[in-house]
Amino acid sequence: MSFIDLNSDLGESFGQWHMGDDATMLGIVTSANVACGFHAGDPAGILRTLKAAASHGVTVGAHVGYPDLVGFGRRNMDIASDELRADVIYQIGALKGLARAAGTQVRYVKPHGALYNTIAHDRRQADAVLAAIDDVDASLVLMTLAGSPLNEWACKAGLRVAAEAFADRAYNRDGSLVSRREAGAVLHDADQVAERMQRLAREGVIECIDGHDIALQADSICVHGDSPGAVALAAAVRSRLARSGIKLKAFAETGP
Fold first, then answer.
1. Transport: present as a keyword of the record (predicted)?
2. How many angstroms separate the Cα of 130 from the Cα of each of 89, 158, 181?
3. What are the backbone dihedrals phi and psi of residue 176, each rounded to the nearest 5 degrees, phi first?
4. Contacts of 156 (CB under 8 A, 6+ apart)
5. How far is CA 200 from CA 9, 70, 122, 187, 210, in A?
6. Pairwise CA distance, residues 223 & 6, whole Å
7. How many Å apart are CA 5 and CA 238, to the nearest integer?
8. What percentage of the chain's residues is helix, strand, coil (to nearest 5)?
């Protein structure tokens, strides 16, 4: 491919709890998945991140999640469909208001953590999230796990989709992410991560945790903002892609 998006999860600090280096990361990425207050983030901090994203020309997405501040949105929840739909509507709406105040706009939706992994395969919860996006703004792009059934479900629902791969996470052979509870699930070596993403962009493959290559087509690459060394990882990926002739461009700005 000639271009790809680079995104990160930002706006996740909460009060005195500082998470990530948003200011520096916004000088590297092309898209920012901004917390909406359910899994992380407080209004003032979210607004600061949105203003910084606007000043850097970084595209903004709503990073919606389960109502789980204590667990950072990484605990599975069996939420009723109507409640989940309302929760997602609420989060997108809140971020849209803050984004407008910051001089930018929400262009896409990326579910967070356990919600992201659940709706990749759980049709009931996926339908609730899809309906919520349609209720608020059907022009929003949905970022999905590359290769997951959610891609097809979202397209059939009439939503535009951007498939995502993770730079700093290990993959199983079926294309799912290795559980964070398992050793080796999170990658920290910047050179290794950059090389993996170069192969992804160039060849459409990624090495899974057992050493086998699997096919993976992605529109965007994610580096988690809360990971140790996240800025160095993102910078290494950006540099390696640039040297390979791969341009970075926000997927939400490329048209259908």
1. no
2. 10, 9, 28
3. -80, 160
4. none
5. 20, 34, 26, 16, 17
6. 8
7. 10
8. 40, 20, 40
Residue 214's region, left for phi above 0, alpha for psi from -120 to 50, else beta, is: beta
Which phi and psi angles does 177 have, rounded to 5°?
-80, 140
Is the pLDDT at 228 greater than 90? The verdict is no
The matching CATH number, chosen from 3.30.930.10, 3.40.50.300, 3.20.20.370, 3.90.1170.20, for 3-253 is 3.20.20.370
| Nearest-5° Cα angle at 205, 247 to 209 | 125
Instruction: Record the pTM.
Output: 0.93
Phi, psi of 163, deg, nearest 5: -80, 140
User: 94 near 47, Cβ under 8 Å?
Assistant: no
Report which DSSP code applies to 80: -
**Predicted local confidence at residue 239, as pLDDT:** 95
Amino acid occupying residue 83: E
With bands split at pLDDT 50, 70 and 90, how would you rate the model's confidence at 37? very high
Would you say how long the chain is, in residues?
Answer: 256
Per residue in 79-138, pLDDT (tens digit) is: 999 999 999 999 999 999 999 999 999 999 999 999 999 999 999 999 999 999 999 999
Which residues face 144 on adjacent strands? Answer: 163
Q: pLDDT tens digits, residue range 180-193?
A: 889 889 988 999 99
pLDDT band at 256 (very low <50, low <70, confident <90, very high): very low
Contact 25, 227 (CB under 8 A): no
CA distances from residue 60 to 148, 152, 246 in whole angstroms, order as listed: 23, 24, 22
